[in-house]
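Rotation project, supervised by the postdoc (A.L.). Task for the rotation student: set up a whole-complex structure prediction and record inputs and outputs verbatim in this book. Inputs entered:
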Amino acid sequence: MIVPDRKTENYLNEPATPKAVARLCRAGVVAPTAFLQAAALCRTDGGWEKGASVFLRLSTALFFAAALFFLTLAHWDFLYQTGGFAAAAVLFGVCACLRRRFAAADYAGVGLIVLMYFLPDTVFMSVASARADLLACAVLSGVWAVPSGRAGVRLLPFVLLNAAFCLSRDIPLFLFAAALNAAVLTAREFFRKLPALSPAVFRLFFLGSTLAFLFAAAADGSGVFPFLLCLTASAAAGYVYTARLPDAGSRRLTAVFNVLWGVLGLFRLLNAASIPPETARALTGIAASALIAAELIADRIRVSGMKGNEDAR
Amino acid sequence: MPADFSLRQTLACLNVSVFNPAVEPALKQACRIDAERKTAKKDPFHGLFSLIVLQLAAFACFAGLRPYALWAGTVLTLAGLIAAAKTKNTAFHRFAEVYLWAGLMLLGEKLFFLLPAAVPSLILPALLSGMAKQSRRERRILGSFWLAVTVFAAAFRLAPAAVFPIAGLFSLAGAAGLLFPLKNVFDREPSIVFILSPLFLKLGLETAALTGWTPPVSSGCVLAAAFAMQGVLLTLALRKDLESGEKALFWLSTAALFAFAALVSDGMAGAIVLLAVAYFTDARSLGKTAAALLIAFLAVFILNQPVSLSSAATLCAVAGLLSALLCRYLKHRFASKE
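Outputs recorded:
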């Protein structure tokens, strides 16, 4: 060849990456022993430097958190004494002063609220309801979270509130919790009433909590009514988030619950029909695989269709 | 390095002339491989996530049908093969593949309990055929994964003492595949699976040992030697670019790595070598996995030590301090480079 043809010319003008160089080796253009030499020419060290920095910061935080955890476990009885309470209170004060600058102080504040609230019950062996304690912690951490600019800290009171609801195995309470989460979600999505909950993580959390409580109510309750009610509610939620708001994360979360609903529904039907356990297990396995595959295939086709429309524009 | 360094410039630096008639067929082949790769990426099911979810779907079917393994496996395999071969619709093809894999898993498990070595022997030709063509990416990923799983399972069943030597061979094969890409051998995915599988095996065994369970076999110095050999391979691959002082440093590092692996933790040593291989081949995902494995091995090592909670807290604090100092040092180094 005197000069490369147009196709080869365009290919050679593409940016070099180590993967592209590996393909040249596999085609026989570059010798295998020269691969690392070629990769060094086109490796972007910036990405590795950034990655190393993130990794080292994360590992530092993890190791110090683990050290604190082991230290607390080793000297747990210290917390039972007056000195322990005082230390926790002083630490809480320090966190309050440093919370604007350090995220760790902001999150640690919530942890200390829960610790200081639960300690007296543990120390004095009082018969307090864990649910009531968690509700109180949710309120107190809500007060702590109001001035915080961090979405994670603002999310924690809702996590504690939902944890309080989880502790009861009362179906009406599960339905109430689902309704509460759905109401907050609706206010956030449709009426824009809650700007403090605007980060995307809140949408996923409230949607996930709504669906989880509905699922728990259906799984726990006996009879057809709770199951049908929850199935309808879940299908409605799924419709809203797939048809009205095509958000990929919410869609996938709804897909997970659709699979769980389908498997639960079949499980209930098979139990009602008095089918041998092995056959029931086989049918459940086949249904679960069909649902998982169908949800993924539908999602992939939708994403591919959306990408195709974007490219056409 | 300029961000728009092209393939042409890279080849020029390596003294490969694109106008050389001897290079022409290889260049055209490279062009074809690249075009195939770009076409494959347009497939909506190209990503690893899709493959994992579809395998989970197949596993759900397998778990349900295990009591009827033989006839269900045969029916599903035949039906899946016919449906996947006949249909032109991508969605239905994928759906049929799920049941094909479920059928193969059922038959594979039945065969494994009769003749453990037969299953990896049947998977190997499928994997090798996948390595012959660029487009058979899924076959490579699934073939290498199931080969590793079945080989280790068969080794545990038939000859537990051979598990770690086999793991060492896998590790070396993976490193060699990543460092020296051979002509017409599309082995990137199998190399990644092979280099990772011994580390995950070791991590699994060490984590299980935390519960008090005693593993049937110990790695001894076998894995340590394998990871040291990986260091040797890396040094050999870099030999043209290293000066004498740097070569000596690399050989010393390899020896230190072997000593560390043999005396302290071979898992941590393996993760460190993997990180080095990932850096030099610019495999970022592999680098992140290596970093996560390093943390995991360190955590398991600390938890395995017969020390008090206070000593464990001290160890973690020291590790955190070292990490913070290294972070600071690297920050200064990167800042001074700019």
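Student's summary: Chain B has a mean pLDDT of 89.
Supervisor addendum: Chain B touches chain A through 94 residues (CB under 8 Å).
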